[in-house]
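[audit] Reproducing an earlier prediction to check determinism. Same input, same settings, fresh worker. If the tokens differ from the archived copy the diff job will pick it up downstream; this log only records the rerun itself.
[audit] input (116 residues):
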Amino acid sequence: QVQLVESGGGLVQDGGSLRLSCAASGNTFSSYSFAWFRQAPMKERELVAAIARTGGRILYGDSVKGRFTISRDNAKNTVYLQMNSLKPEDTAIYYCNFISPPFASWGQGTQVTVSS
């Protein structure tokens, strides 16, 4: 069972940047495509960005295109999300997981708060 631990969130001002990390346990990391999701209060969880097993295919949600960059390091069992030009509407808890069900157990996520 893969366990996921997200980190790197925090409080930033409008226009700021953050880099999130997602560390995965186990030795099957490179077998999975991963995604970052986010959930704001009273809203559905939404997919932010996804990356294929070798990093060759990447997709982004429309709201983050051109501002966020997803990457992965299979040697470190880690997925990253570089977030630039942050906006207040990016405020949410960010989670990583497989790109589609069946999902691994959800981690606690990391809170990102963007102040205006």
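[audit] rerun output stored. Observation attached for the diff report: The mean pLDDT is 96.
[audit] end
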